[in-house]
Write a structure and sequence with these properties.
By secondary structure, the protein is α/β, with parallel strands linked by helices. The chain has 2 domains: 14-77 and 344-454, Alpha-Beta Complex (Aspartate Aminotransferase, domain 1); 79-342, 3-Layer(aba) Sandwich (Aspartate Aminotransferase, domain 2). Helices cover 38% and strands 17% of the residues. The protein has 14 helices and 16 strands. A hairpin with a 2-residue loop joins strand 11 (371-377) and strand 12 (380-388). Bound molecules: pyridoxal-5'-phosphate (PLP). The site of pyridoxal-5'-phosphate (PLP) has 16 residues, from helix 5. Pyridoxal-5'-phosphate binds at residues 69, 127-129, 132, 155-157, 228, 232-233, 261, 263-264, 289, 300.
Length: 458
């Protein structure tokens, strides 16, 4: 059955739409946006959010397959979390981070309980990038070594060091190549940098390359290797069997810390509380943000192993933030984690991937010549669009978009789906508690919209 374009929702009042139009005018006059060239932007207005839906400035209801920036793991406006924030605002709305308060203590306990290994200590930050900054600082102070190694294509945040650790094209304009950072090739099986033709070859060669990089950079100068457990923004390429275990082994062998960046994949996104659990890997430091409280109030943090903690047990840690463990953010984290447990959202994420999203995307891959690859785990999938399956020529060049991809996104929105697009990929990342029929309808829309990119296959 052909899906018809979505029409404005009659329950959205004219007043709300007028407020949206006014917001757009003010935005264009005064708001400076992330990443974009300001005069070329035409951002989408959102007038309402609820569960797995957002309503645009014309009142169209769209299924949110982006979870915004992959953060609303529990969907929009979860009533228990909204209530927890309201109650917290009415008791202790803010507090000096040097004082003890109940919600920060409980949030730290919950994170430590869920985190793998002996990550028993939590330093709270405002978001993901500053979590990465602090994890790197802790690793340097703990080891007494200056360098951090990260993978090309990775995204670790937009602040100074985190952006130097980032190795996607956005960094180029500000990179000074002087931040104590060195990069290595990631494992990316679909476009293997190692000319691998099997998963085993990919793992072996990627690990050999990493060890060579460590040896050539000099192990005694390397404090840590930081890796997104499943690289997110760069394309959701799930590590091949044995890769992460190998990275863990290599880092131990050379006295280097392993920092797992779980900012995007933590808190159930991949169908485990943390993605490292899929491979039984225990990092020395683990960064988190986004899903910890679904982004209802900004929060991030570093989970710290006992050994790293000991470096700061009797020596002061040189770092802090006015809002470290902000009560509103921590109350939201406690309520979010509790709701996720009570409602079985992590298990649901795994099931959605296994039973609905994965099988359906594989069907689309078989049916649509523009789909080069599909891959993912839980509620975290990438559809990689190509002009030619044999050459894998991407539908948009690395680092940019293309009229073809813009047309695909526009078609998804026209039919009622808000997708997450990056370069030549569409990411399928709905909230973990999205009802099955809504996920299925979103996938139906994507399936129909893919006829747009099929039309550009050469
Ligand atoms: N690390 C990873 C893996 C991310 O995906 C992101 C953001 O998308 C960050 C760090 C930075 O987080 P934030 O934008 O909260 O600073």
């Amino acid at each position: 059955m052909t899906i018809q374009p979505v029409t404005p929702d009659p329950s959205i009042s004219e007043d709300l739409l007028a407020a949206g139009r006014r917001a757009y005018e003010l935005d264009r006059a005064h708001v400076f946006h992330s990443w974009g060239a300001q005069r070329t932007l035409s951002p989408m207005t959102v007038v309402k959010t609820e569960d797995s839906y957002v309503w645009d400035g014309q009142g169209h209801r769209l299924i949110d397959f982006s979870s915004q920036l992959i953060n609303t793991n529990i969907g929009h406006s979860h009533p228990k979390v909204v209530e927890a924030i309201q109650q917290q605002a009415a008791t202790i709305a803010t507090i000096n981070p040097s004082h003890v308060n109940d919600v920060r203590s409980e949030a730290a306990r919950l994170v430590a309980e869920l985190a793998p290994g002996d990550l028993n200590h939590v330093f709270f930050t405002n978001a993901g990038a500053d979590a990465v900054e602090h994890a790197a600082r802790m690793a340097r102070l703990h080891t007494g070594r200056p360098k951090i190694l990260s993978a090309y294509r990775a995204y670790h945040g937009g602040t100074e060091l985190a952006f130097n650790l980032t190795a996607d094209p956005r960094r180029d304009a500000v990179d000074k190549a002087a931040a104590g950072v060195a990069h290595f090739m990631p494992s990316y099986p679909y476009r293997s940098y190692f000319h691998a033709t099997t998963e085993q070859e990919e793992t072996e060669r990627a690990l050999e390359h990493l060890e060579q990089t460590i040896l050539l950079e000099g192990p005694r100068s390397i404090a840590a290797v930081i890796l997104e457990t499943v690289p997110g923004t760069a394309g959701i390429y799930v590590p091949p069997a044995g890769y992460l275990e190998g990275v863990r082994e290599l880092t131990r062998k050379h006295g280097i810390l392993f920092i797992a960046d779980e900012v995007m994949v933590g808190f159930g996104r991949t169908g485990e509380w943390f993605a490292v659990n899929h491979w039984g890997v225990e990092p020395d430091l683990m960064t988190f943000a986004k899903g910890v409280n679904s982004g209802y109030v900004p929060l991030g943090g570093v989970a710290i192993s006992d050994a790293v903690f000991e470096s700061f047990a009797t020596t002061a840690y040189p770092g802090g933030l006015t809002y470290s463990g902000h009560p509103l953010a921590c109350a939201a984290a406690v309520a979010t984690i509790t709701a996720m447990k009570d409602e079985g959202m992590v298990e649901n994420s795994a099931r959605l991937g296994r039973e609905i999203i994965g099988p359906r995307l594989r069907e689309m891959q078989a049916a649509h010549p523009s789909v080069g690859d599909v891959r993912g785990l839980g509620a975290f999938w990438a559809v990689e669009l190509v002009k030619d399956r044999a050459t894998k020529e991407p539908m948009a060049a690395y680092g940019g978009s293309s009229p073809e991809m813009n047309e695909l996104v526009a078609e998804c929105k026209r039919l009622g789906l808000l997708p997450f697009q990056n370069m030549n990929r569409i990411h399928v990342a709905p909230p973990l508690n999205t009802p099955d029929d809504v996920v299925r309808h979103g996938l139906d829309i994507l399936d129909q919209a893919l006829s747009v990119t099929d039309g550009y296959v050469s």
